[in-house]
């Protein structure tokens, strides 16, 4: 059974109080990875970003809105350098950072985690480095 692919606005509609935070995360993801592949999955309540459509192999990060926060999750977060100690979770590979305000997206540590996750996936997939 194919999973239902939706739109970013459908994800925002699931948690309208986090509209600004979700849009700030999305803007940062596109800023750090022009041409990234975005997939919104309303059934998962998530929007993922990566190198292709497959969330567990091509994607490196996703935003999952909850009632009081949005998790910025990293599919292979257990392998990422986390010098600021932001990552939470105990799963085999996935880790997340709970965010509550758009201003938190501006933190250098958030940017560093997204870049590290992007590069981990790029290398794992054997993709060439983007042109400078």
Oligomer: single chain
Query: Structural class of the helices, strands and pairings?
Result: alpha+beta
Ends apart, CA distance between termini: 40 Å
Question: What is the percentage of strand-forming residues?
Answer: 15-25%
SSE order in H/E notation?
HHEEEEEH
Low-pLDDT residue spans: none
How many beta-strand elements? 5
* Overall mean pLDDT: 93
Q: What is the rounded Rg?
A: 14 Å
Helix content: 25-40%
Shape annotation? globular
Question: How do you describe this structure in short?
Answer:
The protein is 29% helix and 20% strand.
How would you explain this protein's 3D organization?
The protein is α+β, with helices and mostly antiparallel strands. The chain contains three helices and five strands, in the order ααβββββα. It has helices spanning 8-14, 19-32, 108-124; strands spanning 37-41, 46-50, 59-65, 70-74, 95-99. A five-stranded antiparallel sheet has the order 1-2-3-4-5. A hairpin with an 8-residue loop joins β2 and β3. The longest helix is centred in the C-terminal third of the chain and has 17 residues, at 108-124. The radius of gyration is 14 Å and the shape is globular. The protein starts with 7 loop residues before the first helix and ends in an 8-residue tail after the last helix. The model has no long low-confidence stretch (mean pLDDT 93).
